[in-house]
Amino acid sequence: MTAQSNQPKPSGHVGAAFVWFVLCGGGVGLASSGVLVLTHGLLPVAVANAVITVVSTLIATELHGRVTFRSERGGWGVHLRSGLTVAVSYAFTTGALLVLYVVRPTPSVITEQAVYLTASALAGIARFAVLRVVVFGGERKVRREPVLARTGVARTGVAMAA
Hints:
Layout (H helix, E strand, L loop, with lengths): L13 H25 L6 H24 L7 H28 L5 H27 L11 H5 L3 H7 L1
Helix pairs in contact: 1-2, 2-3, 3-4
C-alpha cells in the first residue's frame, strides 16, 4: 500500500510565474487588439470592446490557472474573482488618469501615457499577487508518490535485496 501525504502543491518560482503571467496576459491582450481591429465597422466599438474584454478575460484566466499558476482550480468562481481583479485594475488606471487631468488639465501625450502605463504596471503587479494568493492559491491537495516510486526503485526490489 502506498503512503499519501496532503501537502500544498508547489507553485514554482515567483519570478517564473510572473514571466508566464506577463506572456499569457500580453499575448491575450495583443490577440484582443487584433480582434478589435477585425471587428471595426461590424459592431460599434464599445460593444466590440465589451465582448472582447469578457472573452479575453475568460481566456486569460484559464491560461493563468493552467500555465502561470499550474492550478487545478476552475469554475465560475475563479472567473468571477479574476474578473473582479480586472474591474479593480480598470478603476485604478482610470482613477490615475482622472487625477492627472485634475492636476494637469491638458497633459502631453507622453505624460498621459507615462501615467497610464505606470498605473497599468502597478495594477498588473497587484493583480498578479491577488491571483497567485487568493484566486489560485490557498490550500491545494495533491497526491505525492512515495520516494521509492519517484526514484524508480520498486518495493519488490528492495524486499529482495534485504
